[in-house]
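The records we work with from here on pair a chain with its fold. The integers have meaning only within a learned vocabulary of local backbone shapes. A complete example follows; check for yourself that the lines match position by position.

:::
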Amino acid sequence: MPALSEHVNVWRSALNILAAKGYQVWVQDDGETFCAERDGWDFMADSPVSLLGLVSMLEHQSPEHYEEYWWRTPGKLDVSKLPSEPKPYVSVVKGPRQRGPAE
């Protein structure tokens, strides 16, 4: 089990993060399309988690103005060339847990 995966129980958190970042958020198409806008930059996605991912692309690129393909980034990763297995690692889910103040 991963530390987090996209599921409907994560949607509220994604929407609240978008709102905290100053985006207005709304839903269209009878709940099929989620939208966000801030400073004229507008986004549409199939889920709030995907919407948050699109907003993170804007934050990463920090374009000064709109131009076609503003979101493209240089790099060697390509979906068709991704490995089918990760390099060895220990998930935080399986590692030792930190005890919080209430424990």
